[in-house]
Design goal:
By secondary structure, this protein is an alpha+beta fold. The chain has 16 helices and 16 strands. The chain has helices spanning about 10-20, 60-75, 120-135, 145-150, 155-170, 175-195, 240-250, 265-275, 280-285, 285-295, 300-305, 310-345, 360-370, 395-410, 440-445, 515-530, and strands at about 25-30, 40-45, 45-55, 95, 100-105, 210, 220, 230, 235-240, 350-355, 375-380, 415-430, 430-435, 455-465, 470-480, 500-505.
Amino acid sequence: MALEKTKLTKEKIIDIVTNDYGLLGIIQINYINRGTSNIFQVIVNDKKYILKEFNSKRTIEYIEKEINIINFLSTKGISVPRYIQLKNGEYYTKYQDRIIIMQEFIEGEVLEDNSANHEQLIKSAKLLGKLIKTLEEYPDLDDEDIINQKFSKRYLLDAIEKIKIEKNKINTDNKYKEIFIKDYETKIGIAQELANNFNFEIINKLTIKNTHGDYCNLQLIYNNKEDITVIDFETAKKMPIIWDIMRSYCYMDKEAKDGIVNIENLKEYVKEVNKYIKLNKYDLKYAADIFLIQLIGSVFGYREYNKDYNQKNLLRFALFRTKICKDLYKNSNKISKELLKILEEKKMKKILIATRNKDKFATIKQVLSKMAKEEYSYYSLYDIEGLDKDEKESGTIDKRAYDKANQIYQTIENNDFEYIIGIDDGIKLKGVLRENVKDYLYDIIDDKYLSEGEQIEIVRAYCFMDKNGDYKSTITEIPFKYKKYNGKLKIEANTYPLSHVLTPVDSDIPVSDLSNEDDINYCFKYTEPKLKELFK
């Protein structure tokens, strides 16, 4: 939601488009409710543009910075929107105290906060890594005194006083008054603890580089399955990049929408960025603390709602961010421990599990980890650059598993994986092996194929290919019972939707609702006897 009401009327927008930009013809205008500026889609003779009215705090210097960055990135292979020049050659105009710009309209999808699925999350991490790497070539951006303003002990102590002031300003008729008081007290307590105990000398040891400064779902346009356009660079600056990484993850991952960080997803996200920009041990160890220090001092959303009870979206955002703060504070050490493993894993032997399915990857990784006599670092196809898309599958599941392993083996240069593991699934229905699960997936989920309690087997072929191209194969079968799913199940790419309608044979709990430990133990029971001859 925009921070300020627009000062533009339909007539004024038409005047700007026609007289300032020289775009003539039939003009249509639609308001887009996204971000903190007022944004309009303007259509001139069927050609689409974005007209943005920045809030009054945005200065010309910010806008000129964004224009220069976009012009730079457009020459470096990063997809960015093109600014439209006015008739006078400038890239912006002013109306009253507001700066107005126009950009080309980028067709595609803009995700809401915390709605990115796993594939989108990893792609956005990859783009963030590439973006920061590319901005290394850009002349140093101003740090805008960001360390003192957002990452210092003085900032936290000042924030505590500001929160106390806001607490005293809570309206008596604010129906969320008790929640405000509780959250403000939580913020004060965490901020005070950080001010007392955090070693702020650590800030000087962090990786500080040029970065976007506001990287999140709202700044990304998914043009198609491959391309993502990055927008809005007016807050770009030189700063601790781990802050931009942590913040973007927390605002993107749909599994963090309730204010609880999925540490495994966070680790994957950071690991993907780290392929392009090498993070040091201080970045990883203090990642949660760095984001927490800045975030805990903000009353944005609470303050706005207390002034205007229509600002419900901003209040929801504020409540979400306080939940994130509490989770980061509670699990800071756990997050630190997991992220530091990224550095340790680079020294370990490596195994590539040839799948993009995050559920399948997680299960196989944990089963192998439980079997292994030494520690390995596990990779999925998301971790490998330059791979062609999977070829159309054909043949039996064991042949397909071999084809997947061999395709990767033939493609990768300087292969340093101990094993490349090709996997492929079939399903045994009514005693007959069906080689292509996808042909039956929707009928099974929609309760059109199996009876309640009917047993099926998930049949999985494995092909372990070593560095020399030698391979061994096996097939496992894991029995399940069918259990009807009550409700509408959304099937997402690269996940395992059958987990919602299958239960272990000795349980009535769907696999999707099992604890991670119970799920892995059940798979291990039926998988380990076959895999132990291949994986020692």
